[in-house]
Amino acid sequence: MAKLKTGRHTSAIRELRRANRKRLQNNMYKTQLNFLVQRIKKSVRKGDLETAKKLVNDACSVYDKSTKKGIIHRNEAARKKSQLTTYLHSSMNKA
Prior knowledge:
Methane Monooxygenase Hydroxylase, Chain G, domain 1
């Protein structure tokens, strides 16, 4: 990487690089959450409720971690966790 010339926009260039790194990390967490939710729904549809329970616990953990890191808002995480557990319990009552 070329050395930065000192000037007015040096800090802006550094901040842009920092923001790009954080964006990639945030997208990684969000992608992981979406993947877990898809796996939960697929296992519930198959009727594999034990696997779904484990996946819900994993998803709740990832939601908590992403809230702690400031990736998603705490109310959004609480709402999503509630929706997942409600979905799981409603499917358990049907079975």
